[in-house]
Amino acid sequence: MAPYEPEQNTGEAGELRAGRRKAARYVVPLAVAGVAAATIGLVPALATSGDPELPDITAQKLIEKIAASDTEQLSGTVKISTDLGLPSFGGMSGGFAPGSGGGGEGGDGEGSSADPQSKLMELASGTHTLRVAADGPDKQKLSVLDDAAEYSLIHNGDDVWAYDSKSNEAYHSKAEGKAGDSAEKDLPKDVPSTPKELADEALKAADSTTSVKVDGTAQVAGRDAYRLVIKPKQSGSTVGQITVAVDSKTGTPLKFTLTPAGGGSAVVDAGFTKVDFDKPAASTFAFTPPKGAKVTEEGDEAKAEKHGFKDGGKEFKGEKDLDGLNGLNVIGEGWTSIAELKLPGGQGLPTGESGDVPPDAQRLLDSLGDQVKGEFGSGTVFKTRLVNALITDDGKVYVGAVTKDALVKAANAAH
Hints:
Number of strands: 18
Strand order of the largest sheet: 7-8-9-10-11-1-2-3-4-5-6-12
Largest sheet: 12 strands, mixed
Helix content: 10-25%
């Protein structure tokens, strides 16, 4: 799908900014799609070389090997790519698109462009190169590398620092726990960013609805690995299969690939291109804000609320935000689970004619949606390659990693 390019001139800019906050509440499913897809595990396949000869192992033993893996020290480079089939959100940075930040350069509020809760959402689309390092539960570092900039998130003892070199902004928070205790606050888990985190999420679904088997071997980042293949048994899921390359010696997942049931390239492919299991240098986790950097302390965001920014620019942060919506209910189980909820106000999507949606937002919604009808009435299905969402005209939302037909069937059954 070609990137979405907003049409905007100077005269329209004020109208567009004013409309963004109104439009935000109507595009919750788009944020749901981005977060849910990232949580399930999102990313084009990374090249592996050779099929090493390894001792036979059962799927159960390999899963146990992953669970028993005690790897706490490593460093390396991870390439992660996500292809949901969504258009680019371009200049629409009103706070409701995945990856949009509330503050920093060009922001409407006083938030920080280095805030990890919004910055890491950028991993939910496109291709990114990450440097990762870990030394036990209290020291981790993740850096997202761009062509001319770098975003780093560092957890070192009681401190969590984030730094965006592009804007020269830093964000600082204190880890929870009493002084002297081991820090309880880890790097944010909203968006899985390593093969292990992605594999852990996938293995949570390994029950009676799932087929799990070992399917050969591979070599990833110079390491011999087993290929664990996870497939839904249920029909109606948009997930084709998940393949996890598991290091034969340490049990550490080295690569994660999710392919859609509809075929084509991977929705998510995340894997190490380099990995080292030696202890990283202590200096890896040291951080001091550069001279002249704007530093935001956790809690300073409260200032933004005074400017009316909190509701309009709030990032969608997953299940906790869903709790604030009306009548959240989960239909079905396993891979075909569908979340049912009600939009605030009890009404469906507005149209550009109502004046609630700016032209750019309306064109984006129209490009993503398919009109559907059923016993429930009528509505619009918003599609990605993995997660789909149905919004009915009476304000109900059905969302899941399922087909359009499965959403309509669920809406009819709930009618």
